[in-house]
Amino acid sequence: MYPTISDLIRDLFGINIPLPIQSFGFMMALAFIVSAYILQIELKRKEKEGLLFSFTKENIIGKPASVVELLSSFVVGFLLGYKLIYAFLNYELFVQDTQGILLSADGNFIGGIALGSIMAYWQFKELDKKKLPEPQIEIVTVHPWELVSNIVITAAVSGIIGAKLFHNLENLHEFEVDPIGTLFSFSGLTMYGGLILGTIMVMRYGRKNNIHPIILADVCAPALMLGYGIGRIGCHISGDGDWGVVNLAAKPEIISWLPDWMWSYNYPNNVISDGIPIPGCVGQHCMVLPDPVFPTPFYEAVACILLFLVLWRMRKIFANPGSLFSLYLLLNGIERYSIEKIRVNNKFEYFGMMLTQAEIIAFVLMILGGVGLWYFKKHRINYERGIPG
């Protein structure tokens, strides 16, 4: 396993470059970048089809820098300088415990003041260059695809919050033991929590910017599937604990040509240091699972990338607004419900059945997806310019 990018570089090229970059975090960032690209392509296509429309807004130009703007720039610069300068001066410690340093109160006060002052001064000079004798109102045209960065940021922030909330609801015992640490740790994310809250906030943002929620949902469907698949690659290569149940069965003959780790794997050097010590290993991440397990993150990564290709192919065939997102819900539910059968997770009793939180949500998504496919096939919604009143 490669808990950090440095581990991957060392294994591939035999050189040690200490970098404070976690493999999971790197893959998550890549997932958002790729998803943003897919989202932009689809927003442009929907605008050409006449389902999305540009709009105008007023900007006031020529104003001098306000106290609020300067103060905001200073605060952002202070926080960056406070942490970055401290990290630079304590680089070895930062590489070893990146999360701990970022979430601690440790920092460099002088560095914070210096960078905060520089950013505030830079903001003042930039706005001073554009200052006019009298501020003017400028009318600008905004296309939906130009909002991609805001959509992705909204999805990322709300998605992480939702993922943390659902994880804590599913693991109340962990939350009771260490509520602060559990809330602010970078680990412990529940996919469906992120999907639910992220979807709500993105739809809300779209409605505020003249993008119909149903159209935006269709646009997001392929990006959501691909982004999740890329994220699961991060789970697998870092060994973050999202693996399957113990698998001691012999590899079936039909897949004998596949590498053994695709059937069962013990995740050596996993990032959460779970298992038993690896003989001769020195340093962090020196644990290996005592028994091999199903590599479910790998299965999900492959499945979701393939399902992305299905959605990408079907996005022009499922022309009725709402149909593509319904197909996404159905496929997403089937994929997750299936993988839960061999995945490690907390089970709860519901109506005499032992089910996981994800199984229940996946089942609901399958129903919603099936009903949505039927409904949007029978009822094509007529969209006027912008959002219907």
Specify the structural class: mainly alpha
Radius of gyration, in Å, reads 24 Å
Helical run tally: 14
N-to-C SSE series?
HHEHHHHEHHHHHEEHHEEH
Could you explain the architecture of this structure?
The chain is globular, with a radius of gyration of 24 Å. Helix 2 (23-48) crosses helix 7 (148-170), helix 7 packs antiparallel against helix 10 and helix 13 runs antiparallel to helix 14 (357-378). A hairpin with a 2-residue loop joins strand 5 (347-350) and strand 6. The chain is mainly α. The chain has helices at 5-13, 23-48, 67-89, 91-96, 98-103, 109-129, 148-170, 172-177, 179-184, 191-208, 213-238, 296-314, 323-339, 357-378, and strands spanning 55-61, 136-142, 276-277, 287-288, 347-350, 353-356.
